[in-house]
Specification:
The complex is a heterotrimer of chains A (372), B (399) and C (511). With 372 residues, chain A is of the alpha/beta class. Chain A is 41% helix and 17% strand. Classes of the chains: A alpha/beta (372), B mainly alpha (399), C alpha/beta (511).
Chain lengths: 372, 399, 511
C-alpha cells in the first residue's frame, strides 16, 4: 500500500510540475480548503475510508491547503448532513465523501451550497432518487469492482487454490460487484484448467464493515472445513478472516488497496495476504483534487464517472488492478496477469457487472445467510 | 418553628443545584481530559462543544435547524427518562426500558414501512408494543417475584433479536443500505405531522413528538402528585410494606407501573423513528437510549420536568462532540467527553447527600426545639456508625 | 479524688438555632453503671455523639483517665476504648456470629483470616461474662436478644473499657431484659464502665449506680440511684409529676365484635404452625390483651388477622361477617383499625409528609379523592384536625416529612389515624414501644377512651406493666397457642410469667 501511495504521490508531483510548466501557478492553497466526511466507518479501517483520508490529507499537505475530517455523530443521513454543514460553516469548500450512503446527503445539501465542491466516491447514478439531476458542483465516481474481483478470483484459482471463500461487508453494490466478479473469475479460470467440478466458493456477507467474534466463528468453520483462501471484502472485516486463517495456515485476499503489508505486519504471518483486488481510490482523489486546484472543474462537474480499465498495455494505469509490487504468486505470474488485463481490456474477456443475481457458474457456489 | 424552609434547603432547590454541580463537574473533568490530550487547543475544543450549534449564529436558518435537531434528538431520551423515573417512583428499576424502546422501534417501523399504517396507528403500535414488553416484566415481577432488573435485561435481549429478525425482512429492510426503508419515501402518511418546521429552518424532523414529550412529562407529574394512583405508586416505592398495610394492591400496581413505563418507552421509539430521522439497522447490542434515559432521569433529579432539562443538556453535549476539531482531537475524544459528563450525572444523589451532611437541622425537626438536633444527631450517628462498622451500609437509604 | 474513667465537662453543642447540649457535665466512674435519663429529644444522643466523635462540641472538654483528649471521629473513640451498642444493631444478617464479631478487626496473617484464634477469644469472653452465643449461627437465625449479645461481644472483643448502651432494652422481652441486667452487672463487676441510656425507670432502679438526668438540652442533675425513687427520677426527667397507673373504670363489655375460630398460620421458619388453633373473642368496650414473650406467634397472628399474611385454616368473624379471606383493604374499610407493631415497616411511609400519612387509610374515600384525583386541601385539613386532636407535634405542620419527626410523634400520628377512622375493632400491637413516659401515658389514656366509647380493643404487648395496667382480660400466647386466660385484677406478675414461659397452661378455653 505504501508503494502504491508513493506512486500516487509521485504521480501527483509530476502532474503539479506539469501544471507549473504550463505557467499557471496554482493559487488553490489559499482559496481551497479540503474536508472529508466518513460514513458509517472510521478513518482507521485500513481500507476504504483510510485510503481516502490519507490521499486527501497528503494532497492537502503537499499543496499547503487546510484539511480536516468530520465524523458524523451517528450513521444517519441527518448526521451526515450536519457534518457537511459543520464543515461548510468552518470554511471548507472541497468536500470528499467516500461511500454510496452519501447520495442522500448530496441531494439534501448540494444545490443549497453551489460554491462547495463535492467529490463523491463509490456513488453511482442509481444511488440517487430517480430523476435526480446531479448538480454542477458535484462529481461522482464509481469503480468497476467486478473487474478487480474477477482478476483476484481468476488469479487464485490459476495459482492452484480450489476451495475459495468470499466474505463481504454489507451487501452494498460495490461489495456485490467485487464478489460476483470474484466468482466469475474463479469460474473462468477453473473452466480453463478443466477443474470446474473441483472448485468451490463459499459466499457470505458479514452485514457490517468490521470483524467480530460472530464473523470470526463463521470463518473458523470455513477454514477448518477446508477453505483455503477467503476474499475479505469490506473495510475492517478482514480481521475476522485473518484471525481464522492463521489458525489453519489459510490465506486471504485483500481489497480496495494492497493490504499485503498491513495484514502481514498485523498478524506476523508472511504471505498471509496472497493478493488484493484494488481500486484506485487514492489516484482518483488525488487527480480530482488536482483538477479542482488547477481550475479544471469543468471536466468533472456534474458527472458520474465509472472507472475501470484505461490501458491494456500498462496495467498500472488502470483504476482496477492487482498489486504487482508485492506479487507472491508463482503459478500465476505477473506476466500471466498482464496477459489477462490485456484480454480484459480488449474485450476478449467480458465480466458482467449485474448485481441482481449470482452469476451462473460451472463451479459450486454456496450462498450463506448474512451473518448480521 | 412554623417559618418556611430556607430556600437553599428545599429539596427541589437542592436537587437542581446538585444536578447543576454534576453538569459543571462533568464539563470540568472533560476539560481536563482535553488538556491532557492537547493542551494548546483544549480551551478551543471545550468552547466548540459548549458553543455547539450556536456556531451558526450568523446563519439563522442553520442555527434554528440545528436547534431543532437537538430538540428532535432529545425527545426519545427524555421520554425514556420519564419511563424510568415513573417506575422508579414506585420502587421499580426499569432497566428494561431499553428493550421496551427496541420493541417500540419494531412495532412502529414495521407498521409504517411494511403495512403502510398511518402515523397515528404506527405510534400507537409502538406504545402497545412497549406496554406489552413492560407487562411481561411486570407479571414475572409481581407473580413470580423475579427481580425486575434481571427480567428487564433478559427481555432487552429478546426484544433486540426479535426486532432484528422482523425488521431484517426484505419488506422493511433496504438490503443495499442495510437499514430500513425511509418511511417518508415508502409511506408518507407514516411520518409524524410536522411542528413549527418553518420556524426551525425547515427542519423536516420537527414533529408533534416534541410537544408530545412535554405533555407526557406534565401528565406524569400530575399523575405522580395529584392522583390516588400516583399516591399509591409512590407509597409502594417508598415503603412497600406500608403500602400493603394500607391495603394497596401491590401486584396490580407493579404490573400497571411497568406497563405504563413500557408504554412511554415505546412512545419514545415511535416519536423518534416516525420522524424519519433514523432508520433501524441490524444491531448487535440493545440501543443505548434506555440506558441513557437512566442517567437523564437521575440528572433531572427524578422529576418529570427536570428530565426535560436534563435530556436537552445531555443531547446538547452529545451533539456538541461533532464540533471538536478533528485535527487536534480524534472523534473518540468527543465520545469520551460526553460519556464523562453523562457519567457524572449519576452523582446527583451523592452530591445531595454531601449537601445534607453535617447540616444537622435540615429536615430533622420536632415539636420541642432541642429535639431537632437530637433526632438529627441520632440519624447521623446511625449512618456514621454504619459506615465505620459494617459493609452493608444501606445504599437503599440513598434512594 | 474520684477515679473517673471518662469525664465530659461543661459540654455545649449547638445546632443552628438550637442548643442541643447546654453546659452538660457527665462523669463516669470506673466500674460503675451510670444511667443517662431523659425524654426523647432531651439531648442524650447528641451527648453520646460528642463522646463518640461524631460531633465536635463548641465548648467543654473530654477527659479520659484524667487526661484531656480530643475525639474527632469514631475511630478516635474506638482507640480510646469506647464502644457503643446501638438500639438498632449494626450486624450483617447473612454472616455468622463470629464473623460479625471480628468484622472490622479481622485477625489475619498475610491477609488470610485466622479465625481459630478469634473464635477462642470470643468463646473465652462469652464464658467470662456469661454471654452465651453460638459462634457459628447466622445472625438472621438468632433472636434479638442473642443479636444484642453479639453486639456486646463485639465491644468486648475490641477490649473496650467504656461501654455505651443506647436504649438496649427497647427491643427485648422481659426475660431478655433480666438477662441483660445480669450481664451488665457482670461487666461492671469485671471493671468495665457502662453508660446506660434509657428512659425506663424500672431498669435504672434495678441496675444503675448513679443517674444523670437531662431535660431539653439542659443538665438537671446527677443522683445516686439507691438514694432516690422512681417518682423523683420521673419528675426530674419530665419536669412534672407523672402517673404510672392507668386511670380506668371497670370494663362494661357489650356485644361480640371479633371472633377468631381455630386459627392456624404456617411458620416461615419451621414446619410447625406459628399460630396453632387459636380461638377467642373480643367484645365492645373491653381491652383484651395478648401477652407473651416475643416470638411466640403474636406477630404472625396479627399478620394473619389483618391480612398481611396468609392463614392456613380457621375463621375470622368481624361484626358477624366472615372476613377470613377478605383482602386488607376490605378489612380496613369494614371496621378494623390496626396500630402495627413496627411503625417504620408498616405504619408509616416515612418519606411522605404528615398529611399524606394521615390519609394513608382513607385517601381513596370520596372525601379525599374524586375521579382518581386527590383533594390535597381536604387531606391537609384532615391532617391538621387530627394533629390538633391527638397532639401530634411537627415542625412544619402537615407538610413535615414524617421521617424527621420524633418516634413519639410518629406513633401518635398512627394512633390518631387508626383511632379516627371508622372502626369497631382496634388492634394495637405494642403501641407504646420505644416511647417515653409522657407519650406512653398519653397513648394509654387514648386507648381507654376508645374502650369507653364502645370500641373493641385487641392489645398485643410485651410490656408486663402495660399488660397488667391496661387490659381487661389477658390471653397468654405461648408457642403459637393461647395457654391461659387471666383476669388482671386477680392475677399476679409471677403467675403471668409462669404462663408466658410455658411453665403453666390451661386447657384452651372456648371463647
Amino acid at each position: 500500500m505504501k508503494k502504491f501511495l508513493a506512486l500516487v504521490l509521485a504521480l501527483t508531483m509530476m502532474v503539479s510540475l506539469c501544471a507549473c510548466n504550463k505557467g499557471g501557478e496554482s493559487k488553490g492553497s489559499d482559496s481551497y480548503r479540503i474536508a472529508m466526511i466518513t460514513d458509517s466507518g472510521d478513518i482507521t479501517d485500513m481500507s476504504f475510508n483510510q485510503t481516502t483520508y490519507e490521499a486527501s490529507k497528503a494532497f492537502a499537505e503537499a499543496h499547503n491547503a487546510d484539511f480536516a475530517y468530520y465524523k458524523p455523530t451517528e450513521d444517519s443521513n441527518e448526521a451526515r448532513v450536519a457534518s457537511f454543514n459543520n464543515a461548510v460553516a468552518d470554511g471548507y469548500n472541497v468536500i470528499v465523501v467516500p461511500g454510496f450512503l452519501f447520495a442522500s446527503m448530496i441531494e439534501t445539501v448540494a444545490t443549497d451550497n453551489p460554491n462547495v465542491t463535492i467529490i463523491a466516491l463509490d456513488v453511482s447514478a442509481g444511488d440517487f432518487s430517480a430523476g435526480y439531476q446531479i448538480p454542477a458542483n458535484v462529481v461522482c465516481f464509481t469503480y468497476q469492482e467486478e473487474l478487480a474481483g474477477y482478476m483476484a478470483g481468476y488469479a487464485v484459482v490459476k495459482e492452484g487454490y480450489k476451495k475459495l471463500g468470499f466474505l463481504g461487508g454489507m451487501a452494498v453494490p460495490a461489495v456485490i460487484r467485487y464478489g460476483f466478479g470474484f466468482v466469475q473469475g474463479a469460474n473462468d479460470a477453473a473452466k480453463e484448467l478443466g477443474i470446474a467440478s473441483e472448485v468451490e466458493v463459499n459466499y457470505v456477507y458479514g452485514g457490517q464493515f468490521f470483524g467480530d467474534s460472530d464473523i470470526t466463528s463463521v470463518m473458523d468453520t470455513w477454514y477448518q472445513g477446508g477453505t483455503e483462501i477467503v476474499f475479505a471484502c469490506g473495510g475492517g472485516i478482514f480481521s475476522s478472516a485473518c484471525e481464522a486463517a492463521i489458525k489453519v495456515d489459510g490465506k486471504v485476499v485483500g481489497v480496495d488497496v494492497d493490504q499485503a503489508g498491513t495484514i502481514e505486519s498485523q498478524y506476523g504471518v508472511k504471505g498471509l495476504c496472497v493478493t488484493s483486488a484494488m481500486k484506485g481510490l487514492a489516484a482518483t482523489v488525488t487527480s480530482t483534487l488536482q483538477g479542482v486546484f488547477d481550475g479544471k472543474w469543468a471536466d468533472y462537474s456534474g458527472k458520474v464517472t465509472n472507472l475501470g480499465l484505461v490501458s491494456g498495455d500498462d496495467a498500472s494505469l488502470n483504476y482496477v488492478q492487482l498489486p504487482t509490487d508485492t506479487w507472491t504468486m508463482t503459478n500465476f505470474t505477473v506476466d500471466d496477469y498482464k496477459a489477462l488485463v490485456k484480454a480484459m481490456y480488449s474485450g476478449e474477456v467480458s465480466v458482467s457487472n449485474a448485481i441482481d443475481a449470482v452469476p451462473a457458474t460451472d463451479i459450486t457456489v454456496t450462498m450463506f445467510d448474512n451473518i448480521h | 418553628m412554623k417559618e418556611k424552609t430556607p430556600f437553599l434547603k428545599r429539596p427541589g432547590v437542592q436537587t437542581a443545584l446538585a444536578s447543576l454541580l454534576c453538569a459543571v463537574l462533568g464539563i470540568l473533568i472533560g476539560f481536563i481530559v482535553l488538556l491532557l490530550m492537547n493542551p494548546a487547543h483544549a480551551a478551543e475544543g471545550m468552547w466548540a462543544i459548549l458553543k455547539n450549534f450556536f456556531k451558526y449564529s450568523n446563519n439563522t436558518k442553520n442555527l434554528m435547524y440545528y436547534f431543532g435537531s437537538t430538540l428532535v434528538k432529545s425527545v426519545p431520551v427524555i421520554l425514556c427518562a420519564e419511563a424510568i423515573l415513573f417506575a422508579y417512583k414506585a420502587g421499580l428499576f426499569n432497566i428494561g426500558a431499553a428493550g421496551q424502546y427496541t420493541v417500540g422501534i419494531l412495532a412502529c417501523v414495521y407498521t409504517a414501512v411494511a403495512l403502510h399504517w398511518n402515523w397515528f396507528f404506527a405510534l400507537l403500535a409502538a406504545i402497545v408494543a412497549g406496554a406489552v414488553w413492560g407487562l411481561l416484566g411486570g407479571i414475572v415481577k409481581a407473580f413470580f417475584n423475579v427481580n425486575e432488573v434481571i427480567a428487564g435485561i433478559m427481555l432487552n435481549w429478546i426484544g433486540l433479536y426479535l426486532t432484528n429478525i422482523v425488521l431484517g425482512r426484505e419488506t422493511v429492510m433496504d438490503t443495499t443500505k442495510s437499514e430500513t426503508y425511509e418511511i417518508v419515501k415508502v409511506n408518507p402518511s407514516g411520518t409524524l405531522p410536522g411542528f413549527l418546521q418553518g420556524l426551525f429552518g425547515g427542519n423536516q424532523y420537527m414533529t408533534i413528538a416534541i410537544p408530545l414529550a412535554v405533555i407526557i412529562a406534565i401528565l406524569i407529574k400530575i399523575v405522580l402528585n395529584k392522583t390516588t394512583f400516583g399516591y399509591e405508586l409512590k407509597a409502594t416505592g417508598y415503603n412497600k410494606e406500608a403500602a400493603r398495610y394500607a391495603g394497596m394492591n401491590a401486584k396490580r400496581n407493579i404490573v400497571l407501573t411497568l406497563v405504563i413505563s413500557g408504554a412511554i418507552s415505546g412512545l419514545a421509539a415511535g416519536s423518534y423513528y416516525l420522524t424519519g430521522i433514523e432508520h433501524f439497522k441490524i444491531a448487535s447490542s440493545v440501543p443505548g437510549m434506555g440506558f441513557n434515559g437512566i442517567a437523564v432521569a437521575f440528572l433531572g433529579g427524578l422529576d418529570p420536568i427536570g428530565a426535560i432539562v436534563a435530556g436537552l443538556f445531555v443531547e446538547y453535549i452529545t451533539l456538541g462532540g461533532q464540533y471538536l476539531n478533528t485535527n487536534y482531537f480524534n472523534p473518540q475524544v468527543a465520545d469520551l467527553m460526553v460519556s464523562i459528563i453523562i457519567y457524572l450525572c449519576g452523582f446527583v444523589l451523592f452530591i445531595k447527600h454531601i449537601f445534607n451532611k453535617n447540616k444537622a437541622s435540615v429536615g430533622a425537626v420536632n415539636a420541642n426545639a432541642v429535639t431537632d438536633a437530637d433526632a438529627a444527631a441520632n440519624e447521623a450517628a446511625k449512618s456514621a456508625i454504619e459506615k465505620t462498622k459494617t459493609p452493608d451500609t444501606g445504599a437503599e437509604k440513598e434512594v | 479524688m474520684e477515679d473517673y474513667v471518662i469525664e465530659m465537662l461543661h459540654i455545649t453543642k449547638e445546632f443552628p438555632g438550637i442548643i442541643a447540649n447546654d453546659d452538660i457535665t457527665l462523669q463516669l466512674k470506673r466500674g460503675e453503671i451510670h444511667a443517662l435519663l431523659g425524654e426523647n429529644g432531651a439531648g442524650k444522643s447528641t451527648l453520646m455523639s460528642v463522646l463518640f466523635g461524631l460531633y465536635t462540641p463548641e465548648k467543654g472538654t473530654i477527659k479520659k483517665n484524667g487526661k484531656e483528649v480530643k475525639i474527632n471521629n469514631p475511630n478516635d473513640a474506638t482507640a480510646l476504648g469506647i464502644g457503643m451498642v446501638h438500639q438498632h444493631f449494626m450486624l450483617v444478617d447473612i454472616f455468622s456470629v463470629l464473623d460479625n464479631i471480628i468484622l472490622g478487626a479481622e485477625p489475619n496473617k498475610c491477609g488470610f483470616l485466622t479465625k481459630k484464634e478469634a473464635k477462642k477469644k470470643v468463646m473465652d469472653l462469652s464464658e467470662k461474662y456469661g454471654l452465651k452465643v453460638d459462634p457459628d449461627a447466622l445472625i438472621e437465625d438468632i433472636t434479638v436478644g442473642m443479636q444484642q449479645r453479639v453486639e456486646i461481644l463485639k465491644m468486648l472483643y475490641r477490649d473496650n473499657e467504656v461501654l455505651i448502651f443506647d436504649e438496649p432494652t427497647a427491643v427485648l422481652t422481659p426475660q431478655e431484659i433480666d438477662e441483660l441486667m445480669k450481664i451488665m452487672k457482670n461487666l461492671a463487676a469485671e471493671g468495665k464502665s457502662i453508660l446506660f441510656i434509657t428512659h425506663k425507670l424500672n431498669e435504672i432502679m434495678e441496675v444503675a449506680d448513679r443517674c444523670t438526668i437531662l431535660r431539653k438540652g439542659k443538665y438537671i442533675g446527677t443522683v445516686d440511684v439507691n438514694k432516690t425513687t422512681k417518682e423523683e427520677l420521673s419528675t426530674m426527667m419530665v419536669g412534672r409529676h407523672v402517673k404510672f397507673a392507668v386511670d380506668k373504670a371497670p370494663a362494661n363489655p357489650g356485644a361480640e365484635v371479633l371472633k377468631v375460630e381455630n386459627l392456624c398460620i404456617k411458620s416461615k421458619l419451621h414446619s410447625k404452625d406459628a399460630v396453632h388453633n387459636v380461638s377467642f373473642n373480643v367484645r365492645k368496650g373491653e381491652i383484651v390483651c395478648i401477652a407473651g414473650i416475643d416470638g411466640n406467634g403474636q406477630t404472625e397472628f396479627v399478620y394473619g388477622l389483618t391480612g398481611l399474611d396468609d392463614i392456613k385454616s380457621g375463621k375470622i368473624i368481624l361484626d358477624g361477617e366472615d372476613i377470613t379471606h377478605k383482602n386488607i383493604r376490605y378489612k380496613n374499610t369494614h371496621g378494623m383499625s390496626h396500630i402495627p407493631e413496627d411503625r417504620h415497616k408498616h405504619g408509616l411511609v416515612l418519606d411522605y409528609s404528615l398529611e399524606e400519612n394521615m390519609s394513608l387509610q382513607r385517601y381513596f374515600e370520596p372525601e379525599f379523592s374524586k375521579a382518581g384525583f386527590l383533594n390535597k386541601d381536604k387531606m391537609r385539613e384532615y391532617s391538621d384536625r387530627l394533629a390538633t386532636a391527638f397532639d401530634v407535634r411537627s415542625s412544619e405542620g402537615a407538610k413535615t416529612i414524617v421521617r424527621s419527626m420524633s418516634g413519639g410523634n410518629q406513633q401518635k400520628a398512627i394512633v390518631a389515624r387508626e383511632m379516627d377512622k371508622d372502626h369497631d375493632l382496634l388492634i394495637a400491637v405494642q403501641p407504646t414501644r420505644g416511647l417515653d413516659v409522657g407519650a406512653i401515658e398519653y397513648i394509654h389514656t387514648e386507648i381507654v377512651k376508645q374502650r369507653d366509647a364502645g370500641c373493641a380493643i385487641l392489645l398485643v404487648s410485651l410490656e408486663l406493666d402495660e399488660v397488667m395496667n391496661l387490659s381487661d382480660r389477658i390471653l397468654v400466647m405461648y408457642e403459637g397457642e393461647i395457654v391461659g386466660e387471666l383476669d388482671p385484677k386477680s392475677t399476679t406478675l409471677q403467675e403471668l410469667g409462669l404462663y408466658m414461659s410455658g411453665a403453666k397452661r390451661d386447657r384452651v378455653k372456648e371463647a
